[in-house]
Design a protein that fits this description.
This protein is an all-alpha fold and 100 residues long. It is 67% helix and 0% strand. The protein has two helices and no strands.
Length: 100
C-alpha cells in the first residue's frame, strides 16, 4: 500500500513538471507567433506605403516636366524592334572603340 502511495505521488509530481514544461513551451511559441504576426503586418503596411509612393512618383503630370527638362522625347516607331529582327545585332561583335 505504501509503494502505491509513493508511486502515485511521484506520478503526480512528474505530471506537474511535464505540464509546466508544456505550458512554458506553449507560451514561448505563442509569443514568437505574435512577433511574426506583428512583423508581417508591418511588412504589409510598408508595402502599401511604398506602392502609394511609387504611384505618386509615377504620375505623368510629374514626369513630363522632368523629362522635358532632360531633353527626352517619346520613343518613335523606328526605335522599336521585334524578336525576329536579328539583323540589327549582327555587328555587335565588331564594336569599334570610342574616339579619344
Amino acid at each position: 500500500m505504501r509503494t502505491l502511495i509513493v508511486s502515485a505521488a511521484f506520478l503526480a509530481l512528474a505530471s506537474a513538471f511535464l505540464l509546466y514544461g508544456l505550458n512554458y513551451d506553449t507560451r514561448r511559441i505563442e509569443s514568437s507567433l505574435h512577433s511574426l504576426e506583428r512583423s508581417t503586418e508591418k511588412a504589409k503596411s510598408d508595402i502599401a506605403i511604398l506602392k502609394a509612393e511609387r504611384a505618386h512618383l509615377a504620375r505623368p503630370d510629374r514626369i513630363e516636366p522632368l523629362a522635358r527638362a532632360q531633353g527626352l522625347v517619346p520613343a518613335g516607331p523606328r526605335q522599336f524592334a521585334q524578336s525576329g529582327d536579328t539583323d540589327l545585332f549582327e555587328d555587335r561583335d565588331q564594336v569599334r572603340p570610342a574616339a579619344r
